[in-house]
C-alpha cells in the first residue's frame, strides 16, 4: 500500500466491494429474521389447527415439518452472517488492517 496516505483505485474498489458485501449480508439477515417471524406466526396457527378429524395432519408431522424449517432458517442465518463478516474482512484488508 502507498505510504503517502492516498488510496489507489484498487484499494478504493476493494473497500467499496467490502461495504457492498457487508450490506448484502445485513439484508440477507433481515430477510431471514422476517421469514422466521412469519414461520412462527404461521406455526402457531398450524399447531392449533391439528388434531383428530378428516384431512388433518398428526401433530408429530406438523412439528417435524416446523423443525426442518427452523433448521433451514438457522443455516440461512449462519450463511448470511458469514457473508457479512467476509465483507467486513475485505473492507479491513483494503484499509490496511490485518485480519486476526
Describe what you observe in this structure.
This protein is mainly α and 100 residues long. 77% of the residues lie in helices and 0% in strands. It has 2 helices and no strands. It has helices at residues 9-48, 59-95. α1 runs antiparallel to α2 (59-95).
List keywords for this structure.
single chain; 100 residues; mainly alpha; 2 helices; 77% helix
- Gap from first CA to last CA: 19 Å
The percentage helix is over 70%
Number of helices: 2
State the order of secondary-structure elements, H for helix, E for strand. HH
Kindly provide the radius of gyration, computed on alpha-carbon positions and rounded to a whole number of angstroms: 22 Å
| Structural class by SSE content | mainly alpha
Report the β-strand fraction as a percent range: under 5%
Described by the principal axes of the CA atoms, the overall outline is: rod-shaped
Give the overall average pLDDT: 82
Amino acid at each position: 500500500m502507498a505510504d503517502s496516505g492516498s488510496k489507489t483505485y484498487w484499494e478504493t474498489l476493494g473497500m467499496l466491494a467490502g461495504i457492498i458485501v457487508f450490506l448484502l449480508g445485513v439484508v440477507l439477515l433481515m430477510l431471514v429474521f422476517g421469514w422466521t417471524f412469519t414461520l412462527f406466526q404461521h406455526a402457531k396457527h398450524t399447531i392449533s389447527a391439528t388434531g383428530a378429524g378428516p384431512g388433518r395432519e398428526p401433530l408429530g408431522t406438523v412439528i417435524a415439518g416446523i423443525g426442518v424449517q427452523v433448521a433451514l432458517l438457522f443455516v440461512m442465518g449462519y450463511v448470511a452472517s458469514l457473508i457479512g463478516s467476509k465483507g467486513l474482512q475485505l473492507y479491513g484488508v483494503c484499509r490496511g488492517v490485518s485480519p486476526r
